[in-house]
Amino acid sequence: MKSFLDENFILQSETAQRLYHKYAEAEPIFDFHNHLSAQEIYENKPLGNLANAWLDHDHYKWRAMRAAGVDEELITGHIRKDGSVKSDEERGGAEAVAKADYERYLAFVKTLQLCVGNPLYHWSHLELKRYFGIDEPVTEENARSVWDKCNELLTKLEFGPRGLLEKMKVRELCTTDDPLDSLEWHKKISAEISAGKTAAGNGGVKARPSFRPDFALNAEAPTFPAYISRLQTADGTKFTSLKDMLAALARRMDYFKQNGSVVSDHSLENDFYLPASYDDVNYVFEKAWLGKKLSCEEIAKYKGWMLIELGKLYAQKGFVMQIHIGALRDNNSAMLEAAGKNIGEDSLQDFNFAPQLGAVLNAIYSAEPKARTILYNLNPKDNEALATMAANFRNCQFGPAWWFNDHKDGIEEQIRVYARTAPLGRYVGMLTDSRSFLSYPRHEYFRRILCNFIGNLVENGEFPAQEEALGKMVKNICYQNSIDFFL
Q1: pTM over 0.85
Q2: Do residues 49 and 101 touch, judged by C-beta distance below 8 A?
Q3: What is the mean pLDDT of the chain?
Q4: Rounded distance, CA 10 to CA 328, Å?
Q5: pLDDT tens across 407-450, in order?
């Protein structure tokens, strides 16, 4: 019987072990999609305790706790509806907070014991091992000693946000940002790096903003009129048509690019394309700006036209266009009202998007052959559809297993589908898609699975034992390919 989480965790063959330890393990990280806060990175404040570091922003863990029957107060009672953490005063004072934080940590530990076969069990123990040096499984019996050891370390500068990133060899990361964001904190981080102010616990990690214009595309949303008015004010112009709004977004892209952005991001959850003329779409825009209800056809026409026009602009300005497809968000209206968005009440969408995506990509690449895109699906049944779609266009990638798919089976299947539909050696590798500074061992998790996949092919005689060539390919997938593709 193998030991839990030993040095050859997941690596089932000698070839896999050599590929991982000799080539993959030491590679740095470019995390090209996450939801970390640039402000928290810059301010570099201590994370407080293990409950804060582990549970404050991690809806994967919240979802598991909820499914295990944990009281909601121990899951989201510490946050406001906007996602920010309540002050000690709001939570009853320092003594009450300390007690409540240990209770929610303990509730998660108890939940973890039930998570056999769940990636949370692997991730959580990799986090304890890589950041805090804890080799034993955390249980209800040793929970207090684990808590005390982690909390002692979390008071140190090198265990602040920057130190945690440095510890995992994160060189660059891309946050997720609205076009109206001032990028104040990205600027401050960049200025520090330029000035050589990379003190202990900093590491000079480059934080790049990502351009995510969801509010400008979701014309059906009640927030749309106010958002367009805010965009108009920020741009200092008066919109008389959709073209004016698109021009304002283009200027915001320029601002993002000036501040290091190399990537955009779009979340598509329902039908997003029908052919339409500019006049058709401009009518929809004006109707939506007045707050009038749109039909499903009008929504699809507007989104499709906007995706194509933005896609062309991204190509012209050197941005990679990320497209995430298939989340069914905020399914529990009572929880949405009580605790807000992004709390773990989302699931898989199921709709026929392939013809729509093909039309959007065809329009973009026909106009801008040098466009670069990366496609992600949430519903695993769409793996083959998305992988084969990506192969239709130059510099279009089938992205890594996303969200509900970034477990061992999901990552293996994504790699397997990628390998049989495109050259695996061109793959851009892993991302965290996380709000937690402790999430970076997920890159190790991916790398072990990747090396095991390749190692098994070699051991089974399905690929020659060309270690040096395979090792170079592994190193590229772990880091260099993403640098080359995005930068």
Answers
A1: yes
A2: yes
A3: 96
A4: 32
A5: 999 999 999 999 999 999 999 999 999 999 999 999 999 999 99
- The backbone torsions φ and ψ at residue 38, rounded to the nearest 5 degrees and listed phi first, read -65, -30
Q: What is the mean pLDDT of residues 401-408?
A: 96
Evaluate the CA torsion angle 34, 40, 41, 44 in order and state its sign. negative
The distance of Cα 233 from the centroid of its chain, to the nearest Å, equals 30
Distance CA 168, CA 34 (A): 15
Contact 224, 218 (CB under 8 A): yes
- 3-state SS, the chain, equals CCCCCCCCCCCCCHHHHHHHHHHHCCCCEEECCCCCCHHHHHHCCCCCCHHHHHHCCCHHHHHHHHHCCCCCHHHHCCECCCCCECCCCCCCCHHHHHHHHHHHHHHHHHHHCCCCCCHHHHHHHHHHHHHHCCCCCCCCCCHHHHHHHHHHHHCCHHHCHHHHHHHCCEEEEECCECCCCCCHHHHHHHHHHHCCCCCCCCCCCEEECEECCHHHHCCCCCCHHHHHHHHHHHHCCCCCCHHHHHHHHHHHHHHHHHCCCCEEEEEECCCCCCCCCHHHHHHHHHHHHCCCCCCHHHHHHHHHHHHHHHHHHHHHHCCEEEEEECEECCCCHHHHHHHCCCCCCCEECCCCCHHHHHHHHHHHHHHCCCCEEEEEECCHHHHHHHHHHHCCCCCEEECCCCHHHCCHHHHHHHHHHHHHHCCHHHCCCCCCCCCCCCCCHHHHHHHHHHHHHHHHHHHCCCCCCCHHHHHHHHHHHHHHHHHHHHC
As given in the structure block, the two tokens for residue 291 are 């707050």
pLDDT digits (tens, 9 = 90+) for 143-178: 999 999 999 999 999 999 999 999 999 999 999 999
Residue-wise pLDDT tens digits, 22-68? 999 999 999 999 999 999 999 999 999 999 999 998 999 999 999 99
> Measured between alpha carbons, how far is residue 167 from residues 125, 133, 162, 202, 417 in Å?
16, 12, 9, 10, 32
Q: How far is CA 407 from the centre of its chain?
A: 14
Q: Residue 229 to residues 212, 254, 325: CA-CA distances in angstroms?
A: 18, 20, 28
User: Which amino acid is it at 251?
Assistant: R
Q: Tell me: the pLDDT tens digits for 216-270? A: 999 999 999 999 999 999 999 999 999 999 999 999 999 999 999 999 999 999 9
Two tokens, residue 5: 């989480």
- How many residues in the chain? 487
Identify the pLDDT of residue 57: 85
